[in-house]
Amino acid sequence: MKKPYVILNSAMSLDGKIATRGGDSAFSDEEDWKRVHKLRSQVDAIMVGINTILLDDSKLTSKEGRSPIRVVVDSKARTPPNARVITVRPEIETIIAVTGRAPPENIANLQKKGVKIMICGDGEKVDLEILMEKLYERGIRNLLLEGGGNLNWGMLSKGLVDEIRIAIAPVIVGGKKATTLVEGEGYTKVSEGVKLEQVNSEQVGKCIVLTYKVLNTRREE
């Protein structure tokens, strides 16, 4: 399959949480946010899941240069038409990936706001492989994934991530209901897991940023 080069970027606590049990995800300091915004300006598109929009009302723009196309994985088209990902900087294209089961009324309300709808499969969840192919056809060659734990699992488990950049904050938050970097079903054996090769490490503000290449990715030039 042809797909964009996908970089998974996230900030987490030392114990692997990307959000506390109360939903707080403020692990990046000012210096790390500068890194993130610069990275956003270097890619063609940035992708999140619907929960990021519903919980954080994220704009998904860059303060360090050009802002990329915004992509929301939203199976049932639940993105509010007044969400900031749509209303802030409307000149930036916003794509919402849905399934064939998404309510037509929801889709129509989003299209009235100028949103591009991509139907990716007819199942309960967006078919991420179809989405990657459609984004590639759209001309997107590199994609920044700022997903929650479930979207990260969906992308990693299907071999759709090429690179991982993780900022580790010097804090432990605990909590069995806190969101980890990767959720989902998980693997039963370590040998089945996603294999990585570390290619860089650096101090950014108070965070340590680790960069890995994914070894068992699915990619065809």
What does this molecule look like?
- The chain has a single domain, classed as Dihydrofolate Reductase, subunit A.
- Helix content is about 25%, strand content about 25%.
- The protein contains six helices and eleven strands.
- It has helices at about 30-40, 50-55, 85, 105-110, 130-135, 150-155, and strands at about 5-10, 15-20, 45-50, 70-75, 95-100, 115-120, 140-145, 165-170, 180, 195-205, 205-215.
- The chain is globular.
- The model has no long low-confidence stretch (mean pLDDT about 95).
Distance between the termini: 9 Å
What is the count of helical runs?
A: 6
User: What best-fitting shape do the alpha-carbon axes yield?
Assistant: globular
Helix content: 10-25%
What's the main sheet like? 9 strands, mixed
Q: Low-confidence runs (pLDDT<50, min 5 residues)? A: none
Question: Keyphrases for this structure?
Answer:
221 residues; alpha/beta; Dihydrofolate Reductase, subunit A; 9-stranded mixed sheet; 6 helices; globular
